[in-house]
């Protein structure tokens, strides 16, 4: 009696508070809610008749709705077998999947859970296939790598070093110090040095005014943000040395 009263609805607790016999309490509850089977059964039968696999977007939604209806039918005393579940699923496939439905029939499933497991695996594989196709449609070229020399580094660089031109103030200090100090690195393997811009050539001064890189000569970035390949850097540095000799 304590167990029944503990799990009973709060509204029913006060109604059957004076009942002391557990058998009497059980019979009263049975008489009150026995008619619910007659109310639920017509709706459950109608839902079972209208249930179609093609009306659901995913297999999981169909499976959830199917077992919800089956549980209501079993509560009302109806018997639902494995063959009924399999036939219900086969007959409600979409007409475009007629060949797929025949293949599942020929597979000879005897348990509904095996059929639904196979459908879930197929659905997951199809989603991955569509996702890969949308990322790169048929006949499209692969994505090109980003050219590092054309990138703009507005924040702190990846490499850290000592000096006035390093860190997050690198782009800020670069243009201001063109008239006094200049950063130059003819070879990346050599030691980095500072030198006065008065000793630089006229071509380098022109490039500094335009904002060119002192390492590779390209526009759009400074020396510390330069990612140009080494063989291009060597050609540019050799070109600068030849101009110095001519001058």
From TrEMBL:
GO molecular function terms noted in the UniProt entry: nucleic acid binding; zinc ion binding
Region described as Disordered: spans on this chain: 133-213
Database matches in SUPFAM superfamilies: Retrovirus zinc finger-like domains
Taxonomic superkingdom: Eukaryota
Extent of the signal sequence: none
Biased composition (Polar residues): 169-187
PANTHER family from the UniProt entry: TRANSCRIPTION FACTOR INTERACTOR AND REGULATOR CCHC(ZN) FAMILY (PTHR33325:SF5), ZINC FINGER, CCHC-TYPE-RELATED (PTHR33325)
Official protein name in the record: UBN2 domain-containing protein
Organism: Cephalotus follicularis (Albany pitcher plant)
């Amino acid at each position: 009696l304590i167990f029944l009263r503990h799990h009973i609805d709060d509204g029913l607790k006060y109604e059957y508070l004076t009942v002391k016999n557990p058998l009497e309490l059980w019979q009263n509850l049975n008489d009150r809610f026995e008619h619910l089977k007659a109310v639920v059964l017509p709706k459950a039968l109608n839902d079972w008749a209208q249930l179609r696999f093609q009306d659901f977007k995913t297999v999981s939604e169909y499976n959830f709705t199917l077992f919800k209806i089956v549980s209501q039918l079993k509560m009302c005393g109806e018997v639902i077998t494995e063959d009924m579940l399999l036939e219900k699923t086969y007959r409600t496939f979409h007409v475009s999947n007629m060949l797929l439905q025949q293949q599942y029939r020929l597979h000879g499933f005897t348990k509904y859970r095996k059929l639904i497991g196979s459908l879930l695996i197929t659905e997951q594989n199809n989603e991955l296939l569509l996702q890969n196709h949308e990322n790169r449609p048929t006949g499209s070229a692969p994505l090109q790598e980003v050219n590092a020399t054309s990138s703009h580094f507005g924040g702190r660089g990846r490499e850290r070093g000592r000096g006035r031109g390093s860190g997050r103030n690198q782009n800020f200090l670069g243009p201001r110090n063109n008239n006094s100090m200049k950063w130059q690195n003819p070879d990346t393997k050599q030691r980095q040095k500072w030198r006065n811009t008065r000793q630089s050539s006229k071509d380098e001064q022109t490039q500094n005014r335009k904002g060119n890189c002192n390492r590779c000569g390209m526009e759009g970035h400074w020396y510390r943000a330069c990612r140009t390949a080494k063989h291009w850097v060597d050609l540019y540095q050799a070109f600068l040395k030849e101009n110095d000799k001519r001058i």
